[in-house]
Every structure is written in C-alpha cells, then in structure tokens.
Amino acid sequence: MKVQVLFFASLRELAGTHASQIVVEDGATVADLWGVLCARHPAVEPMSTSVSFAVNQEYTDRDHPLADGDEVALIPPVSGGCCAEADTDAC
Amino acid sequence: MKVQVLFFASLRELAGTHASQIVVEDGATVADLWGVLCARHPAVEPMSTSVSFAVNQEYTDRDHPLADGDEVALIPPVSGGCCAEADTDAC
Amino acid sequence: MFDIRKTPLDLDELVTAVSDPEAGAIATFIGTTRNHNDGRIVSTLEYEAYPEMAIAEMRKIGDIARERWSLKKIAIAHRIGLVPIGEASVIIAASSAHRVAAFEACHFAIDRLKEVVPIWKKEHFDGGEVWIGSQKGAAFPAGQDGPSR
Amino acid sequence: MFDIRKTPLDLDELVTAVSDPEAGAIATFIGTTRNHNDGRIVSTLEYEAYPEMAIAEMRKIGDIARERWSLKKIAIAHRIGLVPIGEASVIIAASSAHRVAAFEACHFAIDRLKEVVPIWKKEHFDGGEVWIGSQKGAAFPAGQDGPSR
Fold first, then answer.
1. Count of B–C CB contacts within 8 Å?
2. Is residue B88 domain-resident?
3. Which of A38, A64, B12, C15 has the least CB density, counted as fewest CB within 10 Å?
4. Largest CA distance in chain C
5. What is the CATH number that goes with domain D2-132?
6. What residues in C contact A86, CB-CB < 8 Å?
7. What is the pLDDT of residue D41?
8. What's the ipTM?
9. Record: contact D24-B86, CB cut-off 8 A
C-alpha cells in the first residue's frame, strides 16, 4: 500500500523534500515507515528520538497501523508562538 | 484651621455638593471632620461604616490628624473597572 | 502611561505604549460595559473619578507590578463619563520578555484597580439608578490600612 | 476564528472576533519576535506550519478552553513566513463574562499552542540559522500520547 509522507522544517531540510509517496507492506506501522524513510534519507535518522508523527492530521503512536492512502506527517519538535518561560527558551 | 473636603459619587449626591471648605479645631482628626460633616449633611451619615478617606490624595486612617489646608476626599466604596469575579458582582 | 479620559479608549495606543524591543510578550485586558447586571437591564453606564488620586493610585499599581514581576512596561487607561454599552471602560497592557510576567501583572493590575483606584460606576436602568458598591455595606479598599472602626 | 497567515496580524481583528454583548472581559496575548535569543543577535525569524493540522490543533485548544472555563469566544492567529523583528508572530484573544476566565483561557492557549500546534521557527543569525526545538533532543509534545520509545 501507498502512503503520502510530509516533511516539515528541519526534517524537510534533512530529507531534501517536502513530500514523498512511499510504498509500505500491508500492516506496516508508523515505526516501520520511519525505518523505510531512514534507509532512503539517512540524514533524518538522528531525529529518531525527537520526531513525532501525525496520521491524517492527528498525532499518533509509533505502533499505529497505516492504511492505504494515509497522509503521514513527520513532525519535528514544534516551536511556534513566542516568548519563553525561561531565559534559555526560544524568544 | 480650614480643610478642603471633596465629595464623590454617592456621597456627592447625598451631600448635594462636590466640595466644601470646613473649619475644624486644631488637632482634629479625620473622624472629627466626619462628625462635623454628618452634622451638616445628615444624609451622609448612613455611609459612616463604608466611607474611606484620603488626605492629600493618600488613603488614611480615621485617627489621622488634619493640618491646615489639607485636601480631604470622602471615598465611597470604589467600583471602577468592569467584569466581576462572580455573577453577583458588578459588571 | 496612566490615563483617565472622557473619550473612547484605544487598545492600539496602550499596546504601543508598552511595546519594547526586548519584550517578547504583551498581555492586555479590556473591560467592556455590559447591558445587564444582577438581573437588571442597564441602559447607561457612567463613571466618575477623583482624577489626580486615581492616576496616583494607578502609578502605584504599576510600581508594585514592576517590583513583583520582571516587566518591561505597563499602561492603564480608564474612561469616565458616559460609556456606551459595549465600549471599553478600562484597558490595561503589560509587556515583558517572558509571557508569565505579562499575564500575571495584567491580571494583578485589574484586580487591584477595582480595589483601590478612586473611580465609581453608576448604572442607569429602567426604574432607577445606583452607584455600584455603595448599595452594599462595602468596606475600606482591601490591601490598604483600614480606618479605625 | 483560528487562522494561519503570511500577512501581518491585526490585534483589533481578533478582539472584534471575540467581542460579545455578554462579554465584560477580553484578555489578549501578543507574542512578538525579538532581536536576540540565547545570546545570539537574530536578524530574521521565519515560521513554517503544517497549516491544515495547525488549524485543527488550534480548534482543539479552543474546544478545551471552552470546556474548562466559562468563555464566550476565543480566537488564535499565527503568522508564518518571514516575520520582521518586533512584529507579532501570534495573537490570542478570549472573551468572558468575568475576567478570570478570559485571563486563564488566554494563558492556557499560548502554553498549549507552543506544545502541540505544528508550527516551527527558524532563526537566522550572523553565522548561521537554526530550527528552534530541533537542536535540543526535545520529545513528543506534552499532553499527547507519546510514541513508544
């Protein structure tokens, strides 16, 4: 089955692409997809512990099973907004 | 000695005046002045427990001694701002 | 900026007053007159101030806020006279590097303003009018030395 | 109103969006880009969003806020693309009958936005650029089910 993968921010730059159609085996999970992506774009591998995932625009666990046609977004740590709690935080 | 008394809001309406020059004895306190005012404007007397006082634009106790030329403001419970904490409060 | 005025308040003016190149956060509070209170339909709201002392008390609120929080700037403006229903009677703005200080200072300032700043509100409604606060046996503004009773 | 846009944000637009005849209190929060962070002089700030999901997450924040507090309305707008230093990157407005709800909902919304809304900030500074958040080994947004690790 095929899923549409979206890359954002640092992951977009590391992968060198914003979107990619990926073929995965039936029953593949988000974690399996990440394995495929790391093989294809080794530069993203260091983000393994910090990346989050959204399937069809909802945050999901890594063991979430994918379905044909899913839109899977790779979400680096978010940093919108502004104005930190502490001096070391962003803005 | 003479002090300038300012009446605001409900007290202004009860007294029927915004400002009044009052002669008090040397050593008179804010409480003494209030007694003089209650005698002159009996309508203000029910405010005895709720009125606050400012001398020269600073909140003061009732036992504060007055000085010649003081500006004494009679301050009903304040109600500026808006938007109450609870449904029974103002705005 | 601490101001009492008879004309409409302008939010952008207060935001501009607290803007600062080092402030990443601005919190504002807008208090608007409403057409009902305590079950009454209010037709008109009127505010009266002891202007010189009200400005002095606002300044003190600003000083306390700056002592308690790491603020850049704070501004308070209150409208007096007739304030049409739906228009702002008070606006507060506070700026800081970090958002918690701006929120807490702004919240503190409106709470404190309602307690100590010599401004009074009169509601005109069908069948009467009332000075808010005076109808209940309210006491000396909280946080001040109370009068001897 | 929940919006992501490439053009400057307008505080009055958000305040108007939350205005309500029964709302006596409006709290707003404006987050502004600053020219320094972590000791770096920042020349340009750039925001990127996953717009459809970001709007959906903002809506969820609004829903949670309305469940927790007695709000009238809430609005959130975030700017993306290049945001000049000193201009607003995010504005939140919340209205309620009583002031505590407006303040708390507004504060909650900015905290939550920073945790879960898929928007990223890149700082351009003398000598480089960096996506904020990615340089530290930050984890799954708080308050969500975490991925299995």
1. 128
2. no
3. A38
4. 52
5. 3.90.1170.40
6. 98
7. 81
8. 0.88
9. no
